[in-house]
């Protein structure tokens, strides 16, 4: 069965095309700074938003029209695999991501859930072998089921901790089976509802124990891949322990986990934390911890995680500049953790949404490459910090001075001349680079 009969393989046709099922800016083989665009971007589709979303929200039922429902949950699961891989191939997307509960019904027991996962991933592996599509990362959903109402690794209930461990163990087994390139932890409820009954130190100690068990198991099965933590500040927890990039890095360094973990960062989560996306990417990069990213746009006027397909070239330009400065994002990628609007109900909208997102990231990449080639930011920063290249500034950087010497210097140079940043003019120049 063909689930998307209205279009064939989506190809680059340029920005003059009137074909809605064509790329206007994303040209996979076009070389940017010495390598093909597709290698810079490493696009992935998110199984959950692409396949399992129904258009429902807290205020209304689902609206989407979908054609993969079967007579049994397992038949539906396998139909979804067919539809998903058809879309991947037609969009020329080479990677995908999933939660365990996305791909297989949970059944009536953990044992049945694992059996269903085995059966569906057998089928997924057939599709991967047939198409060449690869698994960017997978993860365990440890936030939806009522058992996780108080968290998973941070739960007050040891039985919940054990159940979560079983899910992650299975997730790592599946990652090895499917050749996964990363494994993600999103602590959807790893946080607290109220400090009145919460021992933060106890819960974070348990989270660290959990992560160390995951590291040990990955080494035991000889599947050592990057572990990624995806920060998010709130929603659903009042305060989540992986609030933002800096908070998460502090946790990793406290528990000596920094050599095993990097960050999977999302634009919408950044804005919920009061940051820009490029801020979070930059913070991760300064710790050598930029692992992967989830791409979406945040409607900040609403104040929650709207997960829109990205369309802001300014944001994607700065995001891709951080990726270029990081010398790429592999073995991570750019996963479209993006969902259609409630009013975009047709099957074809799944293709149109991803085409739009891929085009805007292609434009961001090209803009970022121009900024890098022109040393736009390098020259700005070199001029701003020029006082540290000679004289007393160089002595400071060389650790060749102390408070006494600096005090003597300051007494003789207390009429300090500051220079304007001309920031308004600088910001106006950025627009000249937007492709």
How is the topology of this model organized?
Elements: E1 31-32, E2 35-36, H1 37-41, E3 43-46, H2 47-52, H3 73-91, E4 95-99, H4 100-103, H5 110-131, E5 134-139, H6 158-178, E6 182-185, E7 191-192, H7 200-220, E8 227-229, E9 239-240, H8 245-254, E10 261-266, H9 267-272, H10 277-286, E11 290-294, H11 313-325, E12 334-336, H12 348-373, H13 376-384, H14 391-397, H15 403-412, H16 423-430
Parallel strand pairs: 3-4, 3-12, 4-5, 5-6, 6-8, 8-10, 10-11, 11-12
Antiparallel strand pairs: 1-2, 7-9
Q: What order do the helices and strands follow?
A: EEHEHHEHHEHEEHEEHEHHEHEHHHHH
CATH arch. level architecture of the largest domain: Alpha-Beta Barrel
Radius of gyration: 24 Å
CATH topology of the largest domain: TIM Barrel
Subunit structure: Homotetramer.
Cofactor: Mg(2+)
Binding site for Mg(2+) 1: 230, 266, 294, 337
EC number: 5.3.1.5
Could you explain the architecture of this structure?
The chain is of the alpha/beta class and 435 residues long. The chain has two domains: 343 residues, Divalent-metal-dependent TIM barrel enzymes (TIM Barrel, Alpha-Beta Barrel); 48 residues, no CATH class. The chain is built from 16 helices and twelve strands. The strands form three sheets. Strands 3-4-5-6-8-10-11-12 form an eight-stranded parallel barrel, surrounded by four helices. Strand 5, helix 6 and strand 6 form a beta-alpha-beta unit. Helix 5 packs parallel to helix 6 and helix 6 runs parallel beside helix 7. It is globular and about 85 Å long. The mean pLDDT is 96. It comes from Fundicoccus culcitae. Its cofactor is Mg(2+). Belongs to the xylose isomerase family.
